[in-house]
Amino acid sequence: SSDLAGILVGLVIRFAPGGVGPRPAEGHGLGGDDHAGAAVLPGVIVVAIISLVGGASLGPEAPLVTILGGLAALVATRMGLPAKAKVALSAAGVSSMIAAIFGSPMSSAILFLEAIPFSGRALYRRVFPALIAACVGYAVFEVAGVEMAQTAYPAAGRADALTLVATILIAAVAAAFGLAFVQLFNRIDVGLRRFDGNPVMKAAWGGLAIGVVEIGRAH
User: Fold this and answer.
1) Cα 82 to Cα 84: distance, rounded to the nearest angstrom
2) Rounded CA separation 34/21 (Å)
3) CA distance 40 to 48
4) Which of 74, 27, 20 is nearest to 51 (CA)?
5) DSSP letters of 174-187?
6) Long-range contacts for 111-117 (Cβ within 8 Å, ≥24 apart)?
7) pLDDT tens digits, the chain, 219 residues: what are they?
């Protein structure tokens, strides 16, 4: 089923008007002047449905970010807003999604305070709209009774010196693995660009790879 889904995804990429937006390595169309336009939204939505139903286990976050970026670009264009407004609107949409996933509006505020390289008034102009959107998104999901948050953690025991040392070592190893993953991801992305001329075959091989991984997990 995953290989069939890959073929269908490739066909959508090949024939959908406007394509399906930027590559994952290009930020899913969020930020700067490379926003995913409204023309790619139908293709992104169809590809997301096919790939998720077909067995892709990466979750809906990536297509949601692209869809939100496209909607932000559409709204900003229709309202005659400047290019910077696309960033603010995209950030607000993503914040509402983050609040729903993590079950707290404050998660969006913490994320933006850590990630956005702005200070002073520029910071507040971006954090406040994002935080308001996060509160609204969280409230909508609460009223609708949709459970997306995965935050049920076991109670932590009393910390001691050994726990502190272990935490530091685990964090260092995790950081090293994270950096290695980023390098590997970029190399794979560059290597796969040579197959961009045949998206059907490229997506079919991707679906086959997902199927092999799922078979391995099942056994």
Assistant:
1) 5
2) 10
3) 12
4) 20
5) HHHHHHHHHHHHHH
6) 116/91
7) 677 888 888 888 888 876 776 666 665 555 444 445 667 788 888 888 888 877 665 667 777 777 777 787 788 788 888 777 777 777 787 788 778 777 777 777 777 666 655 555 666 677 778 888 888 888 887 787 766 555 555 666 677 788 888 889 999 999 999 999 888 988 888 888 888 888 888 888 888 887 777 777 666
Q: List the one residue out of 208, 219, 216, 187 whose CA is nearest residue 54.
A: 208
Q: Which residue has the tokens 């998104």?
A: 137
Instruction: Record the tokens describing residue 53, joined without a space.
Output: 């139903």
- Is 185 in contact with 192 (CB distance < 8 Å)? no
Q: Copy the structure tokens of residue 194.
A: 């040579």
Are the C-beta atoms of 35 and 85 separated by less than 8 Å? no
**Token pair for 192:** 């796969």
59-63: long-range pairs with CB below 8 Å, 24+: 61/97, 61/101, 62/24, 62/28, 63/28
Contact 76, 85 (CB under 8 A): yes
> How far apart are the C-alpha atoms of 76 and 86, rounded to whole Å?
6
Query: What's the token pair of residue 154?
Result: 């076991």
